[in-house]
TrEMBL record:
This is AAA family ATPase. SMART domains: HTH_LUXR. Keywords: ATP-binding, Nucleotide-binding. It comes from the Bacteria. Residues 860-925 form the HTH luxR-type domain. The keyword Nucleotide-binding applies. PANTHER family: TESTICULAR SOLUBLE ADENYLYL CYCLASE, TRANSCRIPTIONAL ACTIVATOR DOMAIN. The lineage of its organism: Bacteria, Bacillati, Actinomycetota, Actinomycetes, Kitasatosporales. It comes from Streptomyces violaceorubidus. The keyword Lyase does not apply. CDD domains: LuxR_C_like.
Length: 930
């Protein structure tokens, strides 16, 4: 077995690594320290120990040249295991095929790919434990770090370990991965002296002390600085040398940072090599040759092989990898020295060679072409555009923006340059990089000229999402569309489509009928110049009552081409699906978009998609999950300064609080949203604020206030044009009107829903319409008929809260008209649904009706399964005396969220105060043990 160079002065670190390697279950560990401090040597020791104890060791390393290639690092690390992928189930095989280009599916989310990676690692380690060793993790691409971070936090319980080396002086995406760390510090003085004496025993005393002083305990410096004396690693600075020699070496210059002094050491050796050998080293350095010791290139991935470089081995710059027989660099710092020492022309020539080496790899070829080309070249620009498209579909927003910007710089015509800069700015905007987007479009603007369309697009996006400006942006974008059309009346272009889609988003938030009518006339005039998707957005986002017929089918048709959809198209179509209540069909696609882009890609798109996931969770009764999704979205939107989307999220959280009967929180959020949105004319949000007020008042039993809120959205008997909440609050207005004696208004509103054709627009609107007709019918037979239609409405069970309300209302009618026996089944089903949802005021109302029908009141059950894990954890912390704030800090929740959870826990446990929690939880445990 290969012997290792002794490691001096690292007893504590070696002991901890030995425990890590010998541990009986999987875990992850990060070694973090400055350049040259000995992380690689410790990784070697751990890998050697693992191999000696029968573990499978797989090694990889981050490569700076590949840090912009999405999933390049993950592919390098997992490539020895990829043949095992075929043994996984079909779902996970599809994930890997999409991630690594073996199939045509959409790129997987971080979560789905992370789960697939865990499954692959578990399978690979089923016979022998597995150690993954990753050096230079700071150069790993963001997508790979996100997946490895996800997997690394979930290795417990298996037999897979992950060991990562990071430079502490270089920022890394691993910095936020929350993996355990082992700091690797400089050697203490005694160990530094021992290391220096072991490798350079003949140093003159004065120079020895100077090396120790300048190396500051850095092992690489202790090894390399003395070897600089006579021109090579084989000629140490010996006793005859004096301090004047040290001056020549730059060792006395304490102002130079240690890495730079080491660069000088390696640079002087490079200068003595022949020109052809330096060319070989430069190509190898730019291609990351030998970054991972002992790891061959991934199958199907070509890599440059340095040849005839024995001279560099003699100079102490290269060594021969015993596993592959290839030349590799002795240390990553040597690679960077080779690159920094080359002239621009030499680097471009090397990149040109590497572009030919990677002719079959679209993204690697683009990386080298971008660096090799100086003069405009449309063929190169097209190759970079293709790489940007590939990166977009893999979730690499920053890489796509970088390649598009470089493609613009290399464009031969001003028109192509402008188009590509516009594409880069568009990508940057959806990645939440508005500052970069503005700089890109500013570079395309000639002095003393009007703003080009791409500049308007970027500034309007920012004004809308950061400040909720729906008035000026509407005028600005409309005028720009008119200018674009005047230049090319019958032509479609990417910028025209993007402007139109932005205008539709602006008008959706404005909710202004006049603006919408103007925009609809524009859509009609453009006709086939726009893709079908834009017309779907226009019909769904504006007035679904008047234009929603057939939208469900059109949305489904567009989603059928999922493989060709960009992330922003998925979120826009998701918004259309929300307006016709079919979000559940696309939840999986939406969740993938969120997981992928909130970590590494198009974060603005993921904000909207998180809204959609939350809305579907609310609709189908997953209210706990909806609360978590909303809190996650609120953190994301506020941290990026997207005020419009932050208030949009607050509006949904307020509506959810109202549904649960948490009226104080609901009204607080309602007031915050209304105060921000109303002065700006953001009608979409003011309508949701009114809907929060309606729902909160209904929950509190204040039907008069609920009615006044509801008619603020739309008058009874009509559906206000372009008021998206008008149809969604149908049942609220009818119920509030009935409870306040306004039976004529209630009936008129129910009939208006039928006449408007709402049942044909969406499954939820069908349920609401039939429910409203049943509630307002004066003839018992008609009431039964429409209640039956509500029960049998397509997907009625997908909307449990609305269905329970309809059952409660019909149960009350039956109790008064036919007696308690007829009413009890409906009232029981309604009460159970409300309790399951956590809709406490409605549950209490249903229980009251049950008591009136002769059913004894049921004590709230305290069965273990009725408390979620999170509720049990919060209740336990509250029982030992922690405040809501302290509980929130432990569980990373807001105090308000903790309060909301406790509000639902108390009735489940049959208690009314925190003081009773301890005993109630004890009884719960006793019941669970029986």
């Amino acid at each position: 077995m290969e012997s290792l160079v002794p490691v001096i002065g690292r007893d504590a670190e070696r002991e901890q690594l030995a425990r890590f390697v010998a541990a009986g279950e999987g875990q992850a560990l990060v070694l973090r320290g400055e350049t040259g401090v000995g992380k690689s040597a410790l990784l070697d020791q751990a890998a050697h120990l693992a191999a000696r104890t029968g573990q499978v060791v797989i090694r990889a390393a981050g490569v700076e040249a590949e840090s912009g290639l999405p999933l390049a690092g993950l592919h390098q690390l997992l490539h020895p295991l990829l043949p095992t992928v075929d043994s996984l189930d079909e779902v996970h095989r599809t994930v890997f095929d999409a991630a690594f280009g073996r199939g045509r599916g959409k790129p997987p989310s971080v979560m789905s790919l992370g789960i697939a990676v865990l499954d692959l690692l578990s399978l690979a380690a089923s016979t022998r434990p597995l150690l993954l060793v990753l050096d230079d993790g700071q150069w790993l691409d963001a997508s790979s770090v996100a997946v490895l971070g996800f997997a690394g936090r979930r290795l417990t319980g298996g037999s897979v370990k992950l060991l990562v080396g990071l430079r502490s002086d270089t920022p890394s995406d691993f910095d936020t991965a929350a993996l355990p760390e082992l700091p690797v510090q400089a050697l203490p003085d005694e160990a530094a002296r021992a290391l220096l004496d072991h490798h350079h025993p003949d140093l003159a005393p004065g120079v020895r002390e100077l090396v120790l002083d300048r190396a500051r305990g850095n092992p690489l410096a202790l090894l390399e600085l003395p070897a600089h004396a006579l021109g090579g690693a084989a000629h140490p600075l010996s006793a005859p040398a004096d301090l004047a020699t040290a001056d020549c070496l730059g060792l006395r210059d304490a102002s130079l940072p240690l890495p730079r002094r080491l660069h000088q050491v390696y640079g002087s050796r490079l200068d003595r090599l022949g020109g052809r050998v330096r060319e070989e080293l430069l190509r190898g350095a730019l291609d990351g040759v030998g970054a991972a010791r002992g790891a061959p290139p991934a199958p199907g991935v070509r890599q440059y092989r340095m040849r005839d470089a024995e001279e560099a081995v003699a100079a102490g710059l290269l060594e021969v990898d015993p596993a592959s027989g290839d030349f590799v660099f002795r240390h990553p710092l040597i690679r960077s020295t080779v690159v920094q020492s080359a002239t621009p022309n030499q680097r471009r020539a090397a990149h040109a060679v590497l572009a030919r080496v990677h002719h079959d790899d679209i993204e690697r070829r683009a990386t080298h072409l971008a660096a090799a080309t100086v003069d405009p070249d449309d063929e190169v620009a097209k190759a970079l555009e293709a790489a940007a498209d590939s990166a977009t579909r893999r979730g690499g927003a920053v890489a796509a923006m970088t390649w598009l910007t470089r493609a613009a710089e290399l464009s031969e015509s001003p028109g192509e340059r402008s188009r590509r800069l516009g594409d880069a700015a568009f990508v940057a905007g959806h990645a939440g990089l508005f500052d970069q987007a503005r700089l890109l479009v500013r570079g395309d603007r000639a002095p003393d000229t009007a703003d080009p369309p791409v500049s308007v697009l970027t500034s309007a996006y920012r004004a809308l999402f950061e400040d909720g400006d729906v008035r000026h942006t509407h005028r600005q974008v409309s005028a720009t569309i008119a200018c674009v059309r005047a230049r090319a009346p019958r032509e479609s272009s990417d910028v025209l489509v993007r402007l139109v889609n932005l205008l539709l988003a602006i008008d959706q938030y404005a909710g202004d009928a006049a603006q919408w009518e103007e925009t609809r006339a524009l859509l009609d005039s453009l006709g086939a110049s726009l893709p079908p998707r834009s017309h779907v957005y226009g019909d769904a986002w504006g007035d679904v009552v008047r234009h929603g017929a057939g939208v469900r089918e059109r949305v489904e048709a567009e989603f059928s081409g999922l493989a060709d959809l960009d992330p922003w198209d998925i979120s826009r179509l998701g918004v259309a699906a929300y307006h016709v209540d079919t979000l559940s069909q696309y939840r999986q696609h939406l969740q993938h978009t969120v997981d992928r882009h909130s970590e590494t890609g198009f974060v603005r798109t993921s904000m909207t998609t998180l809204h959609l996931v939350m809305l579907d969770q609310m609709a189908v009764g997953e209210w706990e999950e909806a609360e978590r999704t909303g809190q996650r979205d609120l953190e994301l939107t506020t941290s990026h300064g997207y005020a419009l989307l932050a208030h949009h999220t607050r509006a949904y959280l307020g509506l959810l609080a109202a549904l649960r009967g948490d009226t104080d929180r609901a009204r607080e959020l309602q007031a915050a949203v209304d105060a921000w949105a109303r002065p700006r004319g953001v009608g979409f949000l003011t309508q949701i604020a009114d809907a929060i007020g309606t729902t909160a008042d209904l929950a509190a039993g204040d039907h008069e206030a609920a009615y006044l809120h509801a008619i603020g959205i739309t008058p009874p008997g009509v559906f206000e044009p372009y008021a998206h909440q008008a149809s969604r609050t149908l049942l609220d207005l009818v119920e509030a009107a009935l409870h306040t004696g306004r039976t004529e208004q209630a009936r008129a509103h129910a009939l208006a829903a039928r006449e408007a054709g709402l049942p044909g627009i969406s499954p939820r609107l069908a349920l609401l319409t039939y429910g409203a007709l049943a509630m307002t019918a004066t003839d018992p037979g008609e009431a039964d008929h429409f209640h039956e239609r509500a029960e049998q409405a397509p997907s009625a069970a997908r909307f449990p809260f609305e269905l329970a309300r309809i059952r409660l209302a019909h149960g009350i009618r039956l109790r008064h008209t036919r007696g308690s026996k007829e009413a009890r089944p409906l009232l029981l089903r309604a009460a159970e649904a409300f309790e399951r949802l956590g809709a406490l005021p409605w549950a209490e109302r249903a229980q009251g009706e049950l008591r009136a029908s002769g059913v004894a009141a049921r004590a709230p059950s305290a069965q273990p399964g009725e408390l979620t894990w999170q509720e049990r954890r919060i209740a336990g912390l509250a029982a030992i005396g922690l405040t809501n704030k302290e509980i929130g800090e432990r569980m990373r929740l807001s105090p308000r969220t903790v309060s909301s959870h406790l509000y639902r826990v108390f009735p489940k446990l049959g208690i009314t105060s925190r003081a009773a929690l301890h005993d109630a939880l004890a009884r719960l445990e006793e019941d669970g043990d029986r």
